[in-house]
From TrEMBL:
One Pfam family from the record: TetR_N
InterPro entries linked to this entry: Homeodomain-like_sf, HTH-type_Tx_Regulator, HTH_TetR, Tet_transcr_reg_TetR-rel_C_sf
Domain of life, source organism: Bacteria
Transferase keyword on record: no
Protein name: TetR/AcrR family transcriptional regulator
SUPFAM superfamilies: Homeodomain-like (SSF46689), Tetracyclin repressor-like, C-terminal domain (SSF48498)
Annotated signal sequence range: none
Keywords from the UniProt entry: DNA-binding
Domain HTH tetR-type: 1-59
DNA-binding region: 22-41
High-level lineage: Bacteria, Pseudomonadati, Bacteroidota, Flavobacteriia, Flavobacteriales
């Protein structure tokens, strides 16, 4: 039951917003009493923490499955972007990350500390892969580029209220990041990915 509550709460938080979803809403959606929810979670903050942890795990599992498909480095980044777009396509237009930072800053900071390590590793792996494939320049200072991209993406998510706007700017950031690193072959692959994208 605990897992079912976390799963339903995650879905509602992403769709309707962390602030607006109440314990009553979750109980109503699940046809259970509010008392049942409080049996597992002493308050809404604890439920938000558990829910964001679950979403975090799911995101990284999907990212791992994309990486396992062995696309080239540029194609891989576009597949990951599409995964995020699909995950958040049914939500209200307010970015979940922006909401979390605004209304539940402690939970946000906690998630961020885990995210920093995993994202920087993911970006690093992608750059190293792209260099091996000849899509990114071999003279790149990998750590600096990881930091550049990480700073860009997190700044966009923290400061853009609208989810659709955040996704549009993220695509620009991905193109900017890729062009900065790409060899001639990499630019051709980037153009190919941009042509097939659905904004």
């Amino acid at each position: 039951m605990k897992e079912k509550i976390i799963s339903k709460a995650s879905e509602l938080f992403l769709k309707l917003g962390f602030k607006s979803v109440t314990m009553d809403d979750i109980a109503g959606e699940m046809c259970i009493s509010k008392k049942t929810i409080y049996k597992y979670f002493c308050n809404k903050e604890v439920l938000i923490e558990e829910s964001t942890s679950m979403v975090h795990r799911q995101v990284h599992e999907i990212m791992d499955s994309i990486v396992a498909k062995n696309y080239n480095a540029i194609h891989e980044n576009f597949e990951i972007r599409e995964m995020f777009r699909d995950m958040f396509k049914n939500n209200i237009d307010t970015s979940p990350i922006y909401q979390l930072k605004k209304h539940y800053p402690e939970i946000y900071q906690n998630i961020l500390s885990h995210e920093i390590d995993q994202c920087t590793q993911c970006f690093r792996d992608n750059i190293e892969k792209g260099i091996r494939e000849g899509l990114y320049r071999s003279d790149l200072n990998i750590e600096v580029y990881v930091k550049f991209y990480y700073t860009l993406i997190f700044h966009i998510n923290e400061n853009t209220v609208s989810e659709s706007e955040a996704q549009r700017i993220e695509l620009e950031a991905l193109e900017y990041h890729t062009r900065a690193m790409a060899t001639e072959m990499g630019v051709q692959e980037l153009e190919k990915q941009l042509k097939r994208i659905i904004i």
